[in-house]
Amino acid sequence: MRDYFRIFIHKHSKYWYLYLGMLVLIPVAFFITLISGVYIIADAESNIMAHLLSTLIFTIISTCLLLIPNYQAAKKAMENNSNFIIIIATLLNQLITMLPIFTVVYIFLGNFISEFNT
């Protein structure tokens, strides 16, 4: 596990420029979330569902570039395993990477949606 964490950190530091690209994607993701959020709020049965869907849209768009280092870390750590195992490890890496962003955006958009919906 220690080696896997070391590989994960090494691959993310090797692809540091993707984090700069992510900073460019954040405003794009924000505007797409705002546009889709209007429709989600209108169609969702509850504010909580609209909140979760809007947060998920923002998080997926803003972290899509991180699939590259996550895949590279899984590929390096699981060299002798099948492609299916590498893809599962990549998705778990992506989930771990997305979770803090999802949490922060969830709190921010919760306040925004509650103000927008009243």
Report on the architecture of this protein.
Helix 3 packs across helix 5. The chain is mostly helical and 118 residues long. It has helices at 2-14, 17-43, 47-62, 67-77, 83-117. Helices cover 86% and strands 0% of the residues. The protein is built from 5 helices and no strands. The chain is elongated, with a radius of gyration of 17 Å. The longest helix has 35 residues, at 83-117.
Q: Outline of this structure?
A:
86% of the residues lie in helices and 0% in strands. It is built from five helices and no strands.
Question: How are the SSEs ordered, and which strands pair?
Answer:
Blueprint: H1 2-14, H2 17-43, H3 47-62, H4 67-77, H5 83-117
Number of strands: 0
Supply Rg.
Answer: 17 Å
Distance between the termini: 48 Å
| Mean pLDDT over the residues | 84
* Weakly predicted, low-confidence segments: none
Task: Note the quaternary state here.
Answer: single chain
Bin the helical content.
Answer: over 70%
How is the biggest beta sheet arranged?
Answer: none
Beta-strand fraction estimate: under 5%
Structural class: mainly alpha
The number of helical elements comes to 5
User: What's the shape?
Assistant: elongated
Order of helices and strands: HHHHH
